[in-house]
Amino acid sequence: MGNSLLVTDNITMQFGGLRAVSDLALQIAPRQIVGLIGPNGAGKTTAFNMITGVYKPTLGKISFDGKDITGLKPNQITELGIARTFQNIRLFSSMSVLENVLLSKHVRLKANPLEAILGLPRYSKARKRHYEECMELLDQVQLADLADEKATSLPYGKQRRLEIARALATQPQVILLDEPAAGMNPQESLELMEFIAKIREQFGLTVLMIEHHMEVVMGICEHIVVLDHGVTIAQGTPTEIQNNQQVIEAYLGAVDEIA
Amino acid sequence: MELYLQTLANGISLGSLYALIAIGYTMVYGILRLINFAHADLLMVAGYIAFYGIMVFALPWWFSFLIAIALTALLGVSIEKIAYRPLRNAPRISVLISAIGVSFLLENLGIVAIGARPKSFPRPEELVWNIKLGDISFLSLTVIIPIVTLLLLVAVTYMVNKTKTGTAMRAVSRDFETASLMAVDVNKVVSTTFLVGSSLAAVGGILYSLQYPQIDPLMGVFPGLKCFIAAVMGGIGSIPGAMLGGFILGMGEVFLVAFMPELSGYRDAFAFVILIFILLFKPTGILGENVVEKV
Question: Where does A81-148 show beta strands of DSSP type E?
């Protein structure tokens, strides 16, 4: 636990009578790629929502980089360095591709309002640099030539990439990817895996991802956590998980039921 | 011909005044999906502060106007903090009723504290004089109002489309939660929106008081309602829409009175007739987009 970057200390989320997540304990080391898997309704996205501050855990504590971040607002948590993407793409529909990325970048643009209004050199220089950095980021996800298009006019796969670019623009240490490969064919999934590995190297990122495509999860994650009905039923390396009887049962039902 | 020009000038002047006030409605609606009924009463508040500044505290008119704008903006931001923010996650109708409550509170507070008798608003000589051009003569305000409005409209449009705050505003108006996950401080953005909208209302209120120099605690109600209609007509939530709606409404009203004097008694009804037709035939307004409900 000593050198973990993101730790959830037995967090529980209770919605009325429903315990969506109970006692989730994650310890994620810097630059690790961790997979969070489980059948539908297992509480994976709820876990993301707790980590990013959308929900406040009913019980338990979340710490990031040694700081307790439980109960902070989403914007504060993002500012500290945790970014995310969404299962159902949530780009800002009326804004251009570039604007979507610029918005996220803005948190790193520190200037006092007076400088901004007067357009003082320091401020406009910072703005220009931000613009260039955003274009660079778009270039890396191969969307630079579409910078002025409306975000929602992009085809699905590109919208996914834009969501990742937008999350990267907040300059996170940890990125949470909620089903990044959803709706992708095997070829696209393969490219996505390479892309995730690449950005991890380039930005020194720690990745926590929810994914249903097993070839993606098994291919890229170093550590996997399996949830079922909110309960952590297994944690371990891909090989360990593949051979775990409980996991197989959660996905396929108990053996005797099938037979 | 003179009549046309004169009427056109009056129409532009009134229209720009409406546009200025309508923006406040549309900005708040865009972000909170709330019709801020208290917006109308900010006109009155600004008018009275400016009035007292000049008449009681004997401040120079421009200083008094600046104070009126600052205090009204502050009031607008406080209204959101006190009456709307605690209801952020409540059903929309609760916030709407809260807004109506604030509006009644301000009006009746005005009646109790200041009195319902209209006061005549001072017209500084440096600001209001007669201009004669050939056969037409008009008040300097007819020119000043559109110029002030135009400057402010350009400033607001620039802010919304080009600045960091503006980008954040547009993002928040689309999706609160996602915006906050992109490190946008939603509360700050909402406050800024009220700050800008209320400042515009204050400027509108002062210009309105100069144009029709009689102020009373209910003076905001009618222009407020009309500007709300202007915002709906242009497509509520759309800033260019509010500007357009304001101009159309102001022009329409002035032309109606000028060319159909027998109908001038219906001057105030004109706006509402338009509202009915807009809601019947193009409920999204002229520049409004069809909003797909978020799932």
Answer: 82-84
* pLDDT surpasses 70 at A1: no
Regarding the domain delimited by A1-81+172-259, which CATH topology (the fold level of the hierarchy) does it fall under? Rossmann fold (3.40.50)
Check residue B294 and give its pLDDT.
Answer: 42
* Residue A256 confidence (pLDDT) above 90: no
- What are the residue boundaries of the structural domains of chain A, listed by start? 1-81+172-259, 91-169
0.85 surpassed by complex ipTM: no
Give the chain A residue whose CA is nearest to the CA of B158: A117
Distance in angstroms (rounded) separating the CA atoms of residues A37 and A30: 20
Mean pLDDT of A162-191: 91
In chain A, the residue whose alpha carbon lies closest to the alpha carbon of B171 is A92
Q: Hey, are the CB atoms on B171 and A102 less than 8 Å from each other?
A: no
Q: Could you tell me if A93 lies within 8 Å of chain B, comparing CB atoms? A: yes
Residues of chain B with pLDDT under 50: 293-295
Query: Cα–Cα distances in Å, from A161 out to A58, A67, A84, A202, B35?
Result: 33, 30, 12, 16, 37
CA distance B191 to chain A (A): 14
**Is residue A113 very low, low, confident or very high in pLDDT (cuts 50, 70, 90)?**
low
Give contacts of A95 with chain B, Cβ < 8 Å: 167, 170-171, 174
Contacts of A104 in chain B (CB under 8 A): 182-183
Distance CA B254, CA B134 (A): 22
Whether residue A25 has pLDDT greater than 90: yes
Contact across the interface for B167 and A99, Cβ inside 8 Å: yes
Give Cα separations from B216 to A151, B48, B108, B212 (angstroms): 49, 8, 11, 11
Across the interface, whether the CB atoms of A107 and B184 are under 8 A apart is answered: yes
